[in-house]
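My main concern about presentation is that the manuscript never shows what a single data entry looks like. An entry of this sort, consisting of the sequence and the corresponding C-alpha cells, reads as follows:
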Amino acid sequence: MEAPLHLRDVIELLERRYPPSTAEAWDAVGLVTGELGAPVQRVLFAVDPTEEVVAEAAAAGADLLVTHHPLLLRPVSSVAATTAKGRVVHTLISEGIALYVAHTNADIAAGGVNDALADALELVETRPLVPAPGRDLDVLVVYVPEDDAESLTEVLASAGAGAVGDYTGCAWSVTGTGEFTPRPGATPAIGAVGTHERLAERRLEMVVPPGLRDRVTAALRQAHPYEEPAFSFLATHPPSSSVGSGRLGRLEEPVTFGEFAARVAAALPATAHGIRASGDSSAIVETIAVSGGSGDAYLDAAHRSGADVYVTADLRHHRASDARAEEAAPFLIDAAHWATEWPWLPMAARALDTDCDGRVETIVSTRVTDPWTLRLGTADTGGNL
C-alpha cells in the first residue's frame, strides 16, 4: 500500500506548475493555513475562499482547499471571528483544512488561468498576449583538471549552478589542453615555479542565476584544486518563455461576432452579470485575445496584437470607450470576473490528478461566488433614452 501524500508533497507539485516566484510583487500566494506534515487525501478547487466555499470543503471532507483568489491579500492585524475573513480562518483550522492560494502565478503559467479560458473558447495556436520576460542567467565557464572535473561539477550543482527547469546538475564540457607558468610567489597545486606546464583540462559550462553568483563563486574557489582557478561568468538574455499575461489565438473557422459572443456565453458558467459585448454583431472575427479576470491593463496589448476580439472582465467605462474609439480596435466582450477564471479549476484538478498519480481525490467547486446576484433593466442595444 502506497504511503499517503502529505501537504508538503502536494504543495511541491502545485508549485512546479505555478511557481510562487512568478507572482506579482503585490500578491499574496502560497500556504495560508495548514500543517506541512498533515496527510492529504481530498482536494477542493475553488475561485474564492468564502465562508460558503469553506463550508463546502468541510462537507466534502477535503483536507486541502486550493483557491485562485487570496484570502488575505492586504495585511491584517486580527483574524478574530468577528469578520468574514476571520471566520474563514477559524473554520479552516477547526476543520483541519489547509488553504493554498495560486493567484497571479496561476494566471501567467502554462496550463494556468489564461490557457484554460482560451481552451474553453476553443482557440488554437495560442501564445501569451504579453510574454513574461525570460529569466536572465549567467553561464559559468571554468577550466579544471580532467581528474577533478566530476567532483567540481557536483559541488557547483549543490551551490545552485546547472538548474534548468525540473533538472539539476546540467552541464556541458569539452576536454582540451591547459597551459600556464607559475611565477615567483605562487604555490601551484600542479607544476613548479618558473616551469611552463601543459595538462589535460576540461572546460565546464553551467548556468547560474545572477542572484547565486557569489555563492557559486565561493563554492568554486573552495573546491577547485588550483590556487587561482580560471573562470568567468557570461551574461545571457534568453527569449521570452511560453508563460505570460493573457493569451492570443485564433478560431478554427471564422464566425460572426454575434456568433462568437454566443459561444462565450455558452462556454462560461452562467452568472447574473452575463456577457456584455461591444462591436458589430455581423462582422467576421477570427483572431481572439483573452485575459482571465480584470483585463483593463491589457487593452492596449490586445489592440497591438491585431486581435479582432478581446475577451476579459471588469472593463471600466472610460477605458473601454477610449479603446473602442481607436482605429482597428478589437471588439470587446466583458464577462464576470469569476466566470473567466472558473475554467482553470477543472484544468488544475486534472493536472494535480496526473502529478499525484491519482493518489489524491480532486473536487471542483461549481458554487457561483461572483458577488453580483441580480441584473435588471437590460437592453439589447445602447440606444437613446
